[in-house]
């Protein structure tokens, strides 16, 4: 599967559709070249591995008590370091990220994930190496 985003539910965006077309075309080109016998050299690629899903701060009744901090909004795949602003309470208090390593949040403040109690997903950047392929 291919997921290209972020984009709001029910919205068709030309730029996102163009990205989706390009990645599907690359995938089909690879299959064609592989089927024609092309050899591919070893390579290394950076990817993001899911670590955990992070919920919004909530009170004892399960109600959200803070929102995504403006500095984090729309910063999917960007590094989040210890002490960086994470949430903002309705009283204006900043809740910083408290972690022992840099993470790369994604699916930040996605409407589709509110009901799943997910403010964002923490990922880590890792390198994968593919061997020679023929």
TrEMBL record:
GO terms for cellular component: cytosol. Residues 44-125 form the AstE/AspA barrel-sandwich hybrid domain. InterPro entries: AspA/AstE_fam, Aste_AspA_hybrid_dom. GO terms for molecular function: hydrolase activity, acting on carbon-nitrogen (but not peptide) bonds, in linear amides. This is ACY2 Aspartoacylase. It comes from Struthidea cinerea.
